[in-house]
Write a structure and sequence with these properties.
With 374 residues, this protein is mostly helical. The protein has 13 helices and 2 strands, in the order βαβαααααααααααα. α4 crosses α9. Keywords: Membrane, Transmembrane, Transmembrane helix.
């Protein structure tokens, strides 16, 4: 319980003494409110360590760079453990995504329990609805991509997935009301073209399969824009709480989808096989932990750089993970792949320079307008 009493400072006593002509101080009713608690818990609240990436004394650029580095590093862990699991025929992408969301939700709750972060509730039904939409776009993007594998080769899916930045720029107009300048559209061409070239191959094309891939890209772009909408602005939610809600909502869709697309018997058989093998169990655990870090860092990156820049970095991340895979697994790399990676990297640098120059121009125009007004 809390006991409240009133108290007066010594300076107030001296003032009252002076008014009394140097005599005894007259004690008027106190004016200051002092709250005392007998609770055993400390009154001070420890600030959350996870959620919004806050590095004391660092600039926004340094925070964004740290988030991108963490995102890329966690992705390498995820890719490497994915390869280990795939090698042992654990090819259950939808069910594995469900496990990723389950692990992310558990890690979010553990973070709150350990006081690394503070739980927050959704402000209203509108915000909860936006989070639910975000979760369903994630689930649908995975389901549609997996469904496309029955009609097209994986290399084609990867090549067409490189067009996601263009979809993101379009959805930014619809969801965020942001229109990119023509220079931005031009810089997206080498980024998408290089990633497409690096995928390589000219597989047979199924129109229905291509439609599924583009639908998956559209869902992925919508997800990025919804992330920016929820992570930025006055009513922004911090990254770890957004992940906590999104992972919970997405599991509602992912589990039934996994049972339908991958079969309950096949899932049970593969899970039992992994549990029986200690090394595979460790790989699956590391994979799920890596997925949590990827999701969290992806949110933090979106919070700092926005939806479109995050998708551009996603294409660069593909180059980074491919290079890591070559170095670790000694995978063969073709000349076409090297050219594609180089074009993507150069395009991303061009995009970054273009955005930087645009921001400097906007800042200069704002300063000029303020000077004119004064």
């Amino acid at each position: 319980f809390v006991r409240v009493r009133f108290a007066r400072s010594e300076s107030d006593d001296r003032v009252q003494s002076a008014r009394a002509g140097g005599g005894a101080a007259r004690r008027d009713p106190p004016t200051d409110l002092v709250v005392m608690t007998t609770s055993f818990a400390p009154v001070a609240v420890k600030p959350p360590l996870i959620g919004r990436l806050s590095l004391p004394g660092s600039t926004a650029k340094a925070r964004a760079t740290a988030a991108v580095a963490g995102w890329f590093s966690a992705t390498v862990v995820l890719i490497l453990t994915n390869k280990v699991l795939m090698r042992e025929h654990f090819r259950l992408p939808v069910f594995l995504t469900f496990l990723h969301m389950l692990a992310s939700n558990l890690w979010c709750h553990l973070s709150a329990y350990m006081r690394w972060s503070a739980k927050t509730r959704t402000r209203n039904a509108e915000q909860a609805g936006k989070i639910f939409l975000l979760s369903q776009t994630l689930a649908l993007s995975v389901v549609l991509a997996v469904a496309s594998f029955k009609y097209v080769e994986v290399s084609l899916e990867q090549a067409l997935a490189a067009s996601t930045p263009a979809f993101t720029a379009l959805m930014s107009i619809v969801i965020l009301g942001k229109r990119e300048k023509w220079r931005t559209w031009v810089t997206l061409m080498p980024i998408m073209g290089g990633a497409t070239l690096s995928a390589g191959g000219e597989p047979s094309v199924s129109v229905f399969g291509v439609c599924l891939i583009f639908s998956s890209n559209l869902m992925r772009a919508t997800k990025s824009c919804m992330q920016e909408l929820l992570l930025q602005g006055e009513n922004a939610m911090d990254s770890i709480n957004l992940l906590r809600y999104m992972s919970l909502y997405s599991m509602v869709t992912l589990l039934p989808a996994a049972l339908v697309l991958e079969g309950p018997n096949h899932i049970a058989e593969r899970v039992a096989f992994v549990i029986a093998d200690a090394s595979l169990s460790k790989a699956l655990f590391a994979n799920c932990c890596g997925a949590f870090l990827v999701n969290l860092m992806q949110f933090i990156v979106t919070e700092h750089v926005g939806a479109l820049s995050m998708q551009v970095l996603g294409n660069v991340k593909s180059v980074f993970t491919s290079v890591a895979s070559v170095l670790i697994f000694r995978n063969e790399v073709t000349t076409q792949g090297v050219i594609g990676y180089s074009i993507t990297t150069a395009g991303a640098y061009w995009y970054g320079m273009s955005r930087h120059q645009a921001k400097e121009k906007e800042a200069a125009e704002a300063d000029a307008a303020a000077t004119t007004k004064d």
